[in-house]
Amino acid sequence: MHMSLQSIAWWPTVFVLAVAIVTDLRSRRIPNWLTLPFMATGIIAGAWLGGWQGLGQSLGGLALGGVIYGLLCFMGGMGMGDVKLAAAIGAWIGASQLLMALILTAMIGGFMAFGWAIVGGFVGELFSGSGDLLFGMRKRGLSPHPDLVLSNPLTRKMPYAPAIAIGTLISFFCHR
User: Fold this and answer.
1) Which of 2, 53, 58, 104 is deepest in the core (most CB within 10 A)?
2) Are 147 and 157 a contacting pair, CB within 8 Å?
3) Is the pLDDT of residue 139 over 70?
């Protein structure tokens, strides 16, 4: 991404991620009033600072975040607020940095889930469910797991905005 956009992206991203963490922890939602304006201003900033190339990078980041997290949402493992947040971040930082942020987010989310399972005393359930998700995909394909979806009131759910925030912020220091 154009260097000046990346330097400008830090503060709006920090602010939006801080609000997303608070709202996700409190209500298990990341509101549209937060993500949609952030997404729009990311596209505008990309075009303004980088011209057509910047616009393309912003749209590429938006698409990458939307497709990857959209697939996870379709499979029942993530909410639309997470999808819109990832797409909006992508609009600000572009696809290459977002890819790094998503990889870091997945690793951090895994560590957070494991820590949550240890504290909550359900490590066995975590591994059993993870195994069902991974190894059951051969039979299910991309269809949602019948039990391990957000819509199931009995499924344990972890707010994911903190993992997205940590992964994204670390990506600013790793990406060149």
Assistant:
1) 58
2) no
3) yes
Could you give the CA distance from residue 35 to residue 16 in angstroms, rounded to a whole number? 8
- Percent helix, strand, coil in the chain, to 5, is 80, 0, 20
pLDDT, tens digit (0-9, with 9 covering 90-100), for 96-129? 999 999 999 999 999 999 998 999 888 888 777 7
For residues 48 and 42, what is the distance between their CA atoms, to the nearest angstrom?
10
For residue 133, the model assigns a pLDDT of 67
The span from the CA of 13 to the CA of 70, in Å, is 20
Total H helices, total E strands in the chain: 5, 0
**Could you tell me which of 76, 75, 104, 74 has the C-alpha nearest to residue 89?**
104
| Cα–Cα dist 15/168, whole Å | 12
Identify which of 102, 116, 111 has the alpha carbon closest to the alpha carbon of residue 158. 116
Amino acid present at 149: V
Please provide the size of the chain in residues.
Answer: 176
> Considering the entire predicted model, what is its pTM?
0.89
CA distance 138 to 91: 33
Q: Taking residues 8-37, report their average pLDDT.
A: 97
Report the alpha-carbon distance of residue 70 to residue 157 in Å, rounded: 17
